[in-house]
């Protein structure tokens, strides 16, 4: 902990010395010529900008692959690919990855893709996805990965916004027992793009379905001859796709004949690396833009320290590469460190609820990284599916994406980690590029539910509504006073939106949009989005706090609390609870739950409404769409766009279950 404090202090006092030393591990074709760091965070002083290592030239793909291969580590395993079906598995070394990347890079170049062009990627969790993104980076183009669960409309919107004229996709994928017909969706998206004047140059398609095991009748809803198999496969069992020979190319056909050598394009450190659209729960999605040099230093360093990475570790991050967690901690962070990772195509509950634990045992995973929503889902099945496997290889368990309630934290620690691991609750955002508040394994004494302390280079402040800084203990807006290397540089095509969203409210600070509390020991507790805060009789309350209290009750599997306008209190609490299997929703339980919140937080926090929720309206990335819950709470059916929900039908079910008097 002392060492952390010293290093953190150094990183703030002399960023150039701190990050300059780290930069020495990487290959820069040309050295820094201008300022090491230059920035403006204050809208009143002009345009917001952040520039690290001006004038230096590098290539992130070279640093992820060539650097290790040249150092004699080509035969090391980069990925253990684990398919949706446990029978499907593959191993990929650094040397193989480099060759494949060069082949694809040459295909892209042959199609006229050059420096600065945007390439859209819409793929399942297969090794070709990693190859595709690195190939794009190798030639200095910019990737825009769209999560494979998005609709044709969403894919088209993102392609149009970035004017991406090349798409890389796959024929289809099994996710658990479900078929996702990616090419079919991509075809629809390309039609929409053309309709809006975008000229599509190429759609490069990975043939995946003929190489994998289809779900067996005994494995879930694919039972009785899987309907998808009837409509999407021919008599010989081959997956069928529509083919437009003016744009479609099979990956395996063009890649096999392409050269496995391709010089990297030496890029300016501040050239764009990728854009990634943040989920548009409000308004139009934003293309968060990250640049090469700073993102490289930051993802590599956070990966190394937050997971205490050492050679010999086997690391497994369950996030899809379509989200920022996958970009930074499936692809870039691990590869920059020369790590060996598990790349998992499937879902945690298929073909059984112990799938994660089975994979950990199989590959002797030492560092594991997942989301609280997954932890809570798996907790529902009890300890038995975990205890079946030997998880003694585990040393660090990470959490990301939302505040983790102490109950889930403790289950993760005690049941999954056998009380013999470090838990790292990593707070960050698509915008931050990498972890910004996180404990460091073995160094930081943890408190369940707290993301603890800022990472190197990050200076945290808490502000009140007027922008006054809250020193010491207190709760307020979570902001950062200065840039760390991995911070986003702009919203693609809309710098003004970047400035208004993140810098306008508090000049001089990057505003996360989250609230946080600092306790008397200086620990940071992220309480959730500010828009999830509510004010009950003048008391600021976070919905996460209430939810955490509710899920402490043994009958509750998951809970969501929202604000409902109240004539006397201003706002009151309306709670949705998903119960553990076999539990009835009765008056007695409702009373107990209200008491739980009341005793945990205070009488002012007593929920006014409690309703049963067979499920919660979650986006495909697992985020609860709270605006829908707020509508249900007030009995308003004007839900707005719910097409991004994983299961839109849950909304109507919830509406029908509204309690009497609500
Ligand atoms: O509200 C915070 C929450 O997730 C938001 C960022 O979401 P996204 O850009 O989709 O990135 C998710 C993966 C990094 C934050 O503003 N969040 C993320 N991690 C945590 C968290 N809230 C509390 N604790 C965390 N560890």
How would you portray this structure in words?
The chain is an alpha/beta fold. Among the domains are: 94-215 and 232-265, 3-Layer(aba) Sandwich (Rossmann fold), CATH 3.40.50; 537-657, GMP Synthetase, Chain A, domain 3, CATH 3.30.300.30. Helices cover 32% and strands 23% of the residues. The protein contains 20 helices and 31 strands. Strand 25 (510-518) and strand 26 (524-529) form a beta hairpin. Helix 10 packs across helix 11. The structure holds adenosine-5'-monophosphate-propyl ester. Residues 278, 324-325, 400-403, 425-430, 451, 512-514, 526, 528-529 line the site of adenosine-5'-monophosphate-propyl ester (PRX).
Describe how the helices and strands are arranged.
Blueprint: H1 2-13, H2 15-23, E1 28-30, E2 37-40, E3 49-52, E4 57-58, H3 60-73, E5 77-82, E6 89-93, H4 94-110, E7 118-122, H5 127-138, E8 142-145, H6 152-162, E9 166-170, E10 173-175, E11 178-180, H7 182-195, E12 202-206, H8 227-232, E13 248-250, H9 251-256, E14 267-268, E15 272-278, E16 286-291, H10 292-306, E17 314-317, H11 324-336, E18 340-344, H12 355-363, E19 367-370, H13 372-379, H14 384-387, E20 396-400, H15 406-416, E21 422-426, E22 460-463, E23 474-480, E24 490-491, H16 495-502, E25 510-518, E26 524-529, E27 533-536, E28 539-542, H17 543-551, E29 556-566, E30 570-579, H18 587-600, E31 609-612, H19 626-634, H20 649-656
Parallel strand pairs: 5-18, 7-8, 7-9, 8-15, 9-12, 12-13, 17-18, 17-19, 19-20, 20-21, 30-31
Antiparallel strand pairs: 1-4, 2-3, 4-14, 5-6, 10-11, 15-16, 16-24, 22-23, 23-25, 25-26, 27-28, 29-30
Helix pairs in contact: 1-2, 3-4, 3-11, 4-5, 6-7, 10-11, 13-15
The structure holds adenosine-5'-monophosphate-propyl ester.
Adenosine-5'-monophosphate-propyl ester is lined by residues 278, 324-325, 400-403, 425-430, 451, 512-514, 526, 528-529.
